[in-house]
Design goal:
Elements (H helix, E strand, L loop, with lengths): L3 H11 L5 E3 H8 L1 H10 L8 E2 L11 H16 L7 E2 L16 E3 L6 H18 L12 E2 L5 E2 L11 H15 L2 H14 L32 H14 L6 H15 L32 H9 L5 H8 L6 E3 L22 H10 L10 E3 L11 H7 L6 H4 L5 H12 L1 H15 L21
Parallel strand pairs: 2-3
Antiparallel strand pairs: 1-4, 5-6, 7-8
Keywords: Calcium, Disulfide bond, Glycoprotein, Heme, Hydrogen peroxide, Iron, Metal-binding, Oxidoreductase, Peroxidase
EC number: 1.11.1.7
Enzyme class: oxidoreductase
Length: about 450
């Protein structure tokens, strides 16, 4: 009996000339029961109430990102947590047909088999993983800020109802052009929250009298995506001046980046104010890539995050790139007794040495954090750690303790659980030492204090 991937390839090949894959044909070709069983076996659950189309696919490997963008726009109005039937908008904003006979996936003709397979996988993640009758009500509960004032989901619905949508549009525009920016924005939010709390201080430019956070070695030259925040802020200031904080824009942008990478959508409690201080020397609170388990645990605990949060948030390393200088010591002159880190898989180390030769480790040399699926928010990062292919010391050290190793194994084996935990950890991280109420300000320009 042919395997599902084999059937999938045969089916794709049979329809390659048309570049169209109707949902009805999917069910007919594979058999509804067989398809449902395969999906269930991989953690996906189908819903007959969901129909979709994908009229134009952007450049290579981005079909899942484009579909995700279309889907989230519709979900914003359909109140997905109530499990209502959802119909996805087409490119021009009109509702697609609700007749399943007319609905089809359409991919670019030039996509090869591997690209088609990844695109189809991304679609499955979206259709059968994200859009379930999940109870998101708990995410709407207010969260307490540092001075007793509350963060709240839908904070701008009355004062600037287009706020989150505008941020999402800017993130989508950026990610469709350069998918690496998704990882950049997630990382920027993390770096913001770990220094003085989630107050947008990482966005502030240096002045003649002060060196700001963004100029410190942990952030420069590796942080990117500042222009995305600038563009969103400019649009919001023209629409509702002095209302939406830069700290909230960054939190929204990180959420959208997670989703555009194939992660779960989630609601962001908002109401943060922008900080008034940004000092480069305070970035010592950021965990360096050379951290061991004890150091990581302590640095996360200092921010109110436990080991489970730490391991889950580390899963963000499944997308994006790293500079060779961040891990080169694992490849060359590791210690007095070993030239190479013995915890690193030798084959992987050889591959990294080809990309990062010792004679030419420049500030601009980079590699994928997760070479298997570098633009998908999945569990491949954890599988890599189990295979001793964690890029950083701070990645591989998660196996050095039996309890943390068990969590790595759990995340590697259960995509659904990881996605659920990642959402919760991102929301929790987004509440670190926030400024609310009369604290801080709403910057007119995210790069400078008013």
């Amino acid at each position: 009996m042919a395997t599902f991937p084999a059937l999938l390839r045969r089916w794709f090949d049979s329809r390659r000339k048309k570049h169209s894959y109707p949902l009805k044909a999917v069910s007919k070709f594979f058999g509804a029961n067989a398809l449902a069983a395969w999906l269930a076996g991989h953690g996906f659950y189908a819903s007959n109430s969901i129909f979709f189309d994908l009229l134009r696919v952007p450049n290579r490997l981005k079909s899942m990102i484009r579909l995700n963008a279309i889907v989230y726009e519709e979900l914003s109005y359909a109140k997905y947590h109530k499990c209502e039937a959802i119909y996805i908008r087409g490119d021009k904003g009109s509702l697609s047909s609700t007749n399943p006979k007319d609905i089809a996936l359409q991919f670019r003709p030039s996509l090869n088999w591997e690209e088609l397979k990844m695109a189809f996988r991304g679609v499955l993640l979206l259709l059968f993983g994200v859009f379930l009758c999940v109870n998101f009500d708990s995410l709407e509960a207010v969260q307490v800020g540092g001075n007793g004032t509350k963060l709240q989901v839908g904070y701008y619905w009355r004062t600037c109802p287009q706020a989150e949508r505008i941020v999402k549009e800017e993130v989508a525009r950026a990610v469709f052009t350069n998918y690496g920016l998704a990882a950049g924005l997630v990382r920027m939010h993390f770096h913001d929250c770990f220094v003085r709390g989630c107050d947008g201080s990482v966005l502030i430019d240096s002045t003649s009298s002060n060196v700001a956070e963004k100029e410190a070695p942990p952030n420069n030259p590796s942080l990117r995506g500042f222009e995305v925040i600038d563009n969103a802020k400019a649009r919001l200031e023209s629409l509702c001046s002095g209302v939406v904080s830069c700290a909230d824009i960054l939190a929204f942008a990180a959420r959208d980046s997670v989703q555009f990478s194939g992660g779960f959508p989630y609601k962001v409690p908002a109401g943060r104010k922008d900080g008034l201080i940004s000092h480069a020397n305070e970035t010592i609170s950021l965990p360096p890539p050379t951290s061991n388990l004890s150091q990581l645990t302590q640095m996360f605990a200092n921010k109110g995050l436990n080991q489970g949060d730490m391991i889950t948030l580390s899963g963000a390393h499944t997308i994006g790139r790293s500079h060779c200088s961040s891990f080169s010591k694992r490849l060359y002159n590791f210690s007095s007794t070993a030239s190479q880190d013995p915890s690193l898989d030798p084959i992987y180390a050889a591959q990294l040495k080809q990309q990062c030769p010792n004679s030419n480790i420049s500030a601009n040399s980079t590699v994928f954090m997760d070479p298997r699926t570098p633009i998908l928010m999945d569990t491949s990062y954890y599988s890599g750690i189990l295979a001793h292919r964690g890029l950083f010391t701070s990645d591989q050290t998660l196996l050095s303790n039996s309890s943390t190793a068990a969590l790595v194994q759990q995340n590697a084996r259960n995509w659904w659980l990881f996605q659920t935990k990642f959402v919760a950890a991102m929301i929790k991280m987004g509440q670190i030492d926030v400024l609310t109420g009369s604290q801080g300000e709403i910057r007119a320009n995210c790069r400078r204090i008013n």
